[in-house]
Amino acid sequence: RVTAIELDPGVVDIATQYFGLDRDKLDVKIGDGLAVAMVDEPTEARSQLLFQAGSFHFIVIDVDAKDTAKGMSCPPAAFVEPAYLRTLSMLLRPNSGVLAINVSARDPNLFKSVCQAVASVFPSVVLSKKSTAEESDDCDEDVNVVVIASTNPDQRLPSAKALESNLNGFSNI
């Protein structure tokens, strides 16, 4: 079963009407992805996006920030805050859950801080690629890297120390 969270109900309507989204096959929740919480987690404002701890095998974050002035167009900074990442970690299956975050950042220091935040919560982290700076002469294009994290410390992903080594290879764009 796949669950998707979409902030804008209009997007779901368009996907259903024009792109054949089958709501019987995809469980679409309308709401703010930042409002996810565990069923037994005390919250001031009860979220409509309540899930059992350990209920997800895989979580993907691919959210546009709408504000490129901060140096990162994807995701908004709140999606990579350690407190939010800890919530996602608890929603993932222990020792087998995987989080993938699409990060589009031109500022290598900002990208490095995102990776460090993820590595502070997850025991295993890997990047989809080291850098695209060498691959592109067009600095106006965004640089996308998928940051992949696992709840399994024995996962065959580099350790936080290896991640740090990879990040040191990032050059300014």
Describe this structure in words.
With 173 residues, the chain is an alpha/beta fold. 25% of the residues lie in helices and 23% in strands. The chain contains four helices and nine strands; from the N terminus they run βαβββββαβαββα. The strands form three sheets. Strands 5, 6, 7, 8 and 9 form a five-stranded mixed β-sheet that branches. A two-stranded parallel ribbon has the order 1-2. Helix 2 (82-91) crosses helix 3 (108-121) and helix 3 runs antiparallel to helix 4. The longest helix is centred in the middle third of the chain and has 14 residues, at 108-121. The chain starts with a strand and ends in a 5-residue tail after the last helix. Residues 131-140 and 168-173 have low confidence and may be disordered.
Low-confidence stretches: 131-140, 168-173
Main sheet characteristics: 5 strands, mixed
SSE succession? EHEEEEEHEHEEH
Helix content class: 25-40%
Whole-number mean pLDDT? 80
Structural class: alpha/beta
Shape category = globular
Proportion of strand residues: 15-25%
